[in-house]
């Protein structure tokens, strides 16, 4: 059980009060936040360290100049009790506040709802009570007070919030009439399950009946007609969304006809494509080049070949790393039965099965730009940093002018990419949430290890989901360590979505650019989406930007992989992981955490998790306590 660093917090607080200085605004923001953390108990440790910049704290973000705190997002961290005035209410540059899914109670302080810059306020799923404060800034975009215990009327003042796009008030105990909200931008409205009465104003008739249900005395509009005609209120045109037109229904028949015809055509096309592919595969499989046929029963397997550039095998031997238990030589390797595992930007990978059933992966590098000496030096470092359970170990290498081969352990489960994107909707078992956390944590540990052992200059440079391999017990292992500096790899579309903005500009890699790439892998894991939405098109949107745009509107739930929706009680963890990922893909390298910090943050998810999680899958998950 972790406890809040109470003494540190209060110590700094005292210092802050004693110093008779005029603080800059960022400092007063910091004080307000510490005051809040101090006064409101929370189940999860925030670990807000007063010695680090407030802008790097969990859940906090600042304006680009880092002069003010502009957003506070603390969903589902077990905040309990009431919010004292003069804490969060002092963050007067705040644009977004999310405290949803906590156990906050008491009244919602009006200094929060009237913050002058506030655009997004999410306090749903707490137990706030009392009246809804009647003070909101006019530019408010989203107001979500749903699933609380608010009472009283819906304030008329909401009619003045012309920028409002979302108003969620469902599942409270509000009473009185529904105000005539003639708000041009309002897209989402929900006042269901309250004690409201009266007729639905004509300006809101365009919303579906599920926006109003559960109020036994509300009538009109999409619900059953009121027994008495409602008094004329206004003749304003209905707000969005528009009514469904009957024209649409008429067209339906035509559309169905077209679709039916089209699908027959598609079916034919598909058949032709499949036939072509089968034929191609046939001829490709028999593409055996050099070397003897493999022994006995293996001969029917398609066989690939990777050693055609090996010359004078006497002089250029396979170089093994210390501690490696393999005892084959280059000849054995070249004789092994091999099949292509995949072609990557660095070359082709083969699965090679030697005699005595030893299986290894041989990578045949292309476009190596360094000479033998530099190559050997780099291999020496790679051998050293590869000694970690979450790094795919390099066992041996071969270097000659015409051929460069790397020998790795064979990791049977394939890559994270294949697990996430392969055969969606087919017979594949989706990767469950526990596995995803475990893989993320393992991979983060592997990267943190190579950063700390390799030193500040040693980067991975090519972190992506296809380079995250899954071990037998579904742990994440990072592969292709240390290859980037050897290669002259053109900016291929394949790794494009993973590259940090500064790498695209300068082509220089750093630990922080690795963190960015890892953040993209996390987003991929959370969303199930590929890092580039529509590769090759001009208007393509990369995953970080897409997620940012969605999260800014706080449709957070829409971000997550649909395959994760089947699991219970994981929303808070997913949001936490999302926050870590978003920190990793910050545009400015200095604002990204380092890998050690990322590891700690992911570990925190698991730790706070194992304490209380009424999850249905607790039995089958093999939650590992971090081995510290
Ligand atoms: C950031 O600083 C620059 C120059 O100091 C200023 O022009 C700009 O308005 C500032 N931006 C914000 C968001 O404060
Ligand atoms: C919510 O607060 C009300 C008092 O305002 C209390 O009666 C109720 O039990 C609380 N509900 C929960 C779930 O804590
Ligand atoms: C809302 O706007 C009306 C005029 O449009 C104004 O009379 C009223 O005072 C405003 N209410 C609030 C609470 O600002
Ligand atoms: C919302 O309120 C309705 C009516 O009381 C109830 O049926 C529903 O379960 C509530 N939803 C949640 C998530 O509490
Ligand atoms: C709504 O309920 C209040 C009391 O709760 C009552 O005074 C008012 O007349 C009702 N309005 C309508 C339109 O039924
Ligand atoms: C409004 O909230 C209720 C209760 O949670 C839900 O059943 C309904 O689908 C929501 N309606 C809309 C339009 O979101
Ligand atoms: C809401 O509308 C749907 C169809 O539009 C209808 O099936 C349903 O019965 C309605 N529910 C209520 C409570 O009016």
UniProtKB/TrEMBL annotation:
GO terms for molecular function: ATP binding; protein kinase activity. Its main location: membrane. It comes from the Eukaryota. Residues 289-310, 606-628 are annotated as: Disordered. PROSITE patterns: PROTEIN_KINASE_ATP (PS00107), PROTEIN_KINASE_DOM (PS50011). The chain crosses the membrane at residues 252-278. Coiled coil: none annotated. The keyword Nucleotide-binding applies. ATP binds at residue 372. Keywords: ATP-binding, Leucine-rich repeat, Membrane, Nucleotide-binding, Phosphoprotein, Repeat, Signal, Transferase, Transmembrane, Transmembrane helix. Residues 335-628 form the Protein kinase domain. GO terms for cellular component: membrane. Residues 606-620 have a biased composition (Basic and acidic residues). Residues 1-24 form the signal peptide. It is found in: Membrane. This is Protein kinase domain-containing protein.
């Amino acid at each position: 059980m972790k406890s809040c660093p109470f003494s540190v917090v209060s110590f700094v607080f005292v210092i802050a009060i004693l110093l008779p200085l005029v603080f800059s605004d960022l400092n007063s923001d910091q004080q307000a936040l510490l005051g809040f953390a101090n006064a409101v108990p929370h189940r999860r440790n925030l670990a807000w360290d007063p010695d680090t910049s407030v802008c790097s704290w969990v859940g906090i973000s600042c304006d680009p100049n880092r002069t003010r705190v502009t957003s506070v997002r603390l969903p589902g961290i077990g905040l309990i009790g009431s919010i004292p005035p003069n804490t969060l209410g002092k963050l007067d540059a705040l644009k977004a506040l999310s405290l949803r899914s906590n156990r906050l109670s008491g009244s919602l302080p009006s200094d929060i709802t009237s913050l002058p810059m506030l655009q997004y306020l999410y306090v749903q799923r707490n137990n706030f009570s009392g009246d809804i404060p009647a003070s909101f800034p006019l530019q408010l975009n989203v107001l979500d007070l749903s699933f609380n215990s608010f009472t009283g009327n819906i304030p008329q003042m909401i009619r003045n919030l012309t920028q409002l796009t979302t108003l969620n008030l469902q599942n409270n105990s509000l009473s009185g009439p529904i105000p005539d909200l003639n708000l041009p931008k309002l897209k989402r409205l929900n006042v269901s399950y309250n004690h409201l009465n009266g007729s639905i104003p004509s300006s809101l008739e365009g919303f579906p009946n599920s926006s109003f249900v559960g109020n036994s005395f509300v009538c009109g509009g999409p619900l059953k007609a009121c027994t008495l005609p409602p008094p004329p209120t206004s003749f304003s045109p209905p707000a969005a969304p528009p009514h469904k037109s009957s024209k649409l229904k008429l067209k339906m028949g035509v559309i169905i006809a077209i679709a039916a015809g089209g699908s027959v055509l598609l079916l034919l096309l598909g058949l032709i494509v499949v036939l072509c592919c089968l034929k191609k595969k046939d001829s490709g499989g028999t593409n055996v080049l050099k070397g003897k046929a493999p022994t006995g029963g293996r001969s029917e397997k398609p066989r690939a070949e990777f050693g055609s550039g090996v010359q004078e095998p006497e002089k250029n031997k396979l170089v093994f790393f210390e501690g490696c238990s393999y005892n084959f030589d280059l000849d054995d390797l070249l004789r092994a039965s091999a099949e292509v595992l995949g072609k990557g930007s660095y070359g082709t990978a083969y699965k090679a099965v030697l005699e005595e059933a030893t299986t290894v992966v041989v990578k045949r590098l292309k476009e190596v730009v360094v000479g033998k000496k530099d190559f050997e030096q780099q291999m020496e470092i790679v051998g050293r940093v590869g000694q970690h359970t979450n790094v795919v170990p390099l066992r041996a290498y071969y270097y000659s002018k015409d051929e460069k081969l790397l020998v790795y352990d064979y990791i049977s489960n394939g890559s994270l990419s294949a697990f996430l994107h392969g055969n969606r909707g087919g017979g594949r078992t989706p990767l469950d949430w526990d596995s995803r956390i475990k893989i993320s944590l393992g991979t983060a540990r592997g990267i943190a290890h190579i950063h700390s052992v390799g030193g500040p200059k040693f980067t991975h440079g090519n972190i992506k989901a296809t380079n995250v391999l899954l071990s037998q017990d579904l742990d994440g292992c990072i592969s292709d360590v240390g290859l980037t500096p050897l290669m002259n790899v053109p900016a291929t579309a394949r790794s494009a979505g993973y590259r940090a903005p500064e790498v695209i500009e300068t082509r220089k890699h750093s630990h922080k650019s690795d963190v960015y790439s890892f953040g993209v892998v996390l987003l991929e894991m959370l969303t199930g989406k590929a890092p580039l939405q529509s590769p090759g098109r001009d208007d393509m949107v990369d995953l970080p930007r897409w997620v940012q745009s969605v999260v800014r509107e706080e449709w957070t739930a829409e971000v997550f992989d649909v395959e994760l929706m089947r699991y219970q009680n994981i929303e808070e963890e997913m949001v936490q992981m999302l926050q870590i990922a978003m920190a990793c893909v910050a545009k400015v390298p200095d604002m990204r955490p380092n890998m050690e910090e990322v590891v700690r943050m992911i570990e925190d998810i698991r730790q706070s998790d194992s304490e209380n999680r009424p999850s249905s899958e607790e039995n089958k998950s093999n939650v590992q306590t971090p081995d510290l």
